[in-house]
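Practice problem 4.
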């Protein structure tokens, strides 16, 4: 099956710091990729480069047939980035909801302002996705009246309301209290079962074990190893992967 995401020779610098080093891989439709690795290994930067929240210094990103190469700055390049972003939904670790908007207001902001959708149609879609994440009854609440888990579920609904082909999750449970993690992972599990293509930076190894089709282990800006969970967790090939997972096992996280 043809890849829906193609990443080629992606490199990113922050000043003299080389954060991504020749990163490349492909993702099939409906595939779930979990990206793991130590802090500072480039995982979040990789996700942000896929939808050009960060602009790679070298390389190419293709999502659902829309290809963007680094380096160009003309109007056509900006239009391609806009079209590529429409193919991806992004969920951040810190929710990033607009505090002055209700849950429904947050969800419909993108369809109305970006897609120029009629407000009535956007509200219908917004309520559909709030119901999907179990929060239709909270549609008129402002973020400060919602728990962290509820805010993250609104953020997921907001991303889904743009009807993306690929969902990007950047450590979506890291800011949550332990008792709230399950409700967010439950929504993500539902998306997996529905066949959503997903790239997830995560420390939730139980989720990665159960739902990932492949796991990417990154270290120092490079992809060290890509393999199915049963390979990564039971017999990883690279010594650095073994060391990382061994440390997690000692901590009881893997």
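Answer key:
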């Amino acid at each position: 099956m043809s890849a829906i995401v193609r990443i080629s020779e992606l490199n990113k610098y922050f000043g003299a710091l080389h954060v991504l080093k020749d990163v490349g891989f492909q993702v099939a439709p409906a595939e779930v990729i979990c990206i793991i690795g130590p802090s500072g290994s480039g995982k979040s930067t990789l996700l942000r480069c896929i939808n050009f929240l960060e602009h790679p210094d070298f390389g190419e990103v293709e999502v659902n047939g829309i290809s963007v190469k680094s380096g160009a700055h003309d109007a056509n390049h900006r239009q391609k980035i806009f079209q590529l972003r429409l193919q991806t939904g992004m969920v951040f670790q810190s929710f990033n909801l607009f505090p002055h908007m209700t849950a429904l207001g947050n969800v419909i902001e993108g369809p109305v302002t970006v897609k120029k959708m009629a407000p009535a149609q956007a509200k219908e879609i917004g309520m559909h996705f709030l119901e999907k994440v179990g929060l239709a009854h909270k549609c008129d609440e402002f973020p400060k009246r919602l728990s962290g888990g509820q805010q993250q579920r609104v953020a997921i609904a907001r991303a889904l309301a743009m009807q993306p082909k690929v969902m990007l999750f950047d450590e979506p449970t890291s800011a949550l209290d332990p008792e709230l993690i399950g409700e967010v992972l439950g929504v993500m599990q539902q998306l997996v079962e529905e066949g959503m293509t997903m790239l997830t930076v995560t420390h939730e190894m139980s989720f990665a074990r159960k739902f990932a089709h492949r796991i990417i282990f990154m270290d120092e800006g490079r992809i060290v190893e890509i393999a199915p969970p049963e390979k990564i967790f039971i017999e990883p090939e690279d010594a650095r992967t073994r060391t990382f997972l061994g440390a997690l096992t000692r901590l009881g996280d893997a």
